[in-house]
Amino acid sequence: MKEKKNKKILRMTNQRKVILEELSKVYFHPTASDVYEMVRKKLPNVSLGTVYRNLELLSSCRTIQKLDFGESHKRFDGNPDPHYHINCTRCGRVDDAPIELKAELDQEAEKASGYQIASHHISYSGICPDCMSDSTGQ
């Protein structure tokens, strides 16, 4: 029996197009409210709910990434390719961790656990350069 692929294809509405354009312009990882403020400049009548629903749809289709660092709000990344993140425990800033993805971790986890590993997600926490310089008085 042939397995059906359950891949949802989203119609590219103007709202989704603008959300993707705005996410592609930034290197920080904005919250839904941040994205709403960016999108509202181009689409003044868009609602926060519409932006949030579209962010959820785009992340469920893996067009963007939804990031959860245990905060009250999720963050979004316009780069859907697997990569690591680092967040500041003081100001909440989230950046891409500038290191290479370690594919060998999947094989190590498979060997140790017996699971068939599809992917892994690593995020680092620390204090960003801006917060470090603020605390040292520089």
Task: Please give a structural write-up.
This protein has 138 residues and is an alpha+beta fold. The chain folds into two domains: 11-78, Arc Repressor Mutant, subunit A (Orthogonal Bundle), CATH 1.10.10.10; 82-138, Ferric-uptake regulator, C-terminal dimerisarion domain (Dna Ligase, domain 1, 2-Layer Sandwich). The protein contains five helices and five strands, in the order H-H-H-E-E-E-E-H-E-H. A three-stranded mixed beta sheet has the order 4-3-5, with no helix packed on it. It has a two-stranded antiparallel sheet with strand order 1-2. A hairpin with a 5-residue loop joins strand 3 (85-88) and strand 4 (94-96). Helix 1 crosses helix 2 and helix 2 (32-40) crosses helix 3. The N and C termini lie far apart (66 Å).
What is the CATH architecture term of the largest domain?
Orthogonal Bundle
Biggest sheet: strands, sense, closure? Answer: 3 strands, mixed
Overall shape: it is flat
Runs in which pLDDT lies below 50 for 5 or more consecutive residues are 1-7
Structural class: alpha+beta
N to C succession of SSEs: HHHEEEEHEH
Number of discrete domains:
2
- Fourth-level CATH superfamily of the largest domain: Winged helix-like DNA-binding domain superfamily/Winged helix DNA-binding domain
Rg (C-alpha, Å):
18 Å
Strand order of the largest sheet: 4-3-5
Number of strands: 5
Name the CATH class of the largest domain: Mainly Alpha
How far apart lie the N and C ends?
Answer: 66 Å
CATH topology of the largest domain: Arc Repressor Mutant, subunit A
Average pLDDT value?
A: 88
Beta content comes to 5-15%
Helical amount: 25-40%
Oligomeric state of the chains present here: single chain
Q: How many distinct helices?
A: 5
